Amino acid sequence: MPGDLELRNLRLRDYFSPRQLDRSEDYERFFRIEFVVSQVALVVALALYAWRGARFARESAAGRIGTGMLLGMLGLAVGWLSQLPFRVVEVWWQRRYDILDTGYVDALVDNWLVLGAEFLSICLALLIVMGFAGLFPRNWWLPAAPVFVAIGALLAFTLPYLGDTERLEDSALRANARQLARELDVEGIPVDVEEVSDETNAPNAYAYGLGPSRRIVLWDTLLEYPDDEVLVVVAHEFAHQSRDHIWKSLGWYALFAFPGTYLIARFTRRRGGMAEPAAVPLSLLVVVMLSLAALPFENAISRHMEREADWVALDATEDPEAAQRLFRRFTRDALAQPDPPEWSSALLDSHPTIEERIAMAIAWQDRRRGP
Ligand SMILES: [Zn+2]
Is 228 inside a domain boundary? Predict the structure, then answer.
């Protein structure tokens, strides 16, 4: 991305109808409020658990780490229950705007799978932390942080093999995608399709994997779009791979892992440190608070990589018109508000705003035309 890139202010009325602007604003405002309220509910629920939960530790005969895991599970249940009403309300709102087609039961079943994964991660994390804390009560975080980073890398590598995706079949699209892959030096990275159109109408795509497991995935909802717009997405996802964004994310994760685990160790000392099961309820609260505090930084890093991927995609496709049409669809079809309030995009958005993305495509065009 050129360092001196200046984006023009757009007149959104030129790109969207008043109804599209209103509708996307109404849709997204709800989620902003809901996010704030749900996080307050989560923190309050876990604070109560941190205050009263430790007493369950005395009644367990599961051993030190076993008792810690029991308390971890109980904390997960407390957090999950505090979020359940919000999950239901989210489904209701998305159905209201025709973004989601699934019923409440299906949405909650999906939620069960997430819960299962969270359950396993909490048990594994407690095993590592409490194991090391038994050996090094004050400095367990020094060996634990690299283990967490290694697990993150292992997950990033294996996830593509667990995903339920199929190779892209459309031969014209595949030929064009191969051309883009050559241009971006990521030849051999496959393009997969994930079937989601039974559940949602929203378009999406992602890049994941490391080394030989690298691939990009398009939601089948995206394949309804004209080929030139799909290719903008393909180029954007290839750009994530060609610029090693997954490795860079892991690097950032490592940078956060050391101070993060140190702070957990520091804050749980008043409950005897992480070697003690009684510290587990408090540690869950600390983890949630630290994640919330890290969110704006995480999103700023993500937005930076997304901007880079957009720019690289413009260079590769040389099709700023298709890029603009695609971004406009994100507002029209997925109800992304083109100009959310600044505090909200700074804190909560992993991607640049639609307004910014369109302005970048225009800036690319301007540069190509020259002064
Ligand atoms: Zn992206």
Answer: no
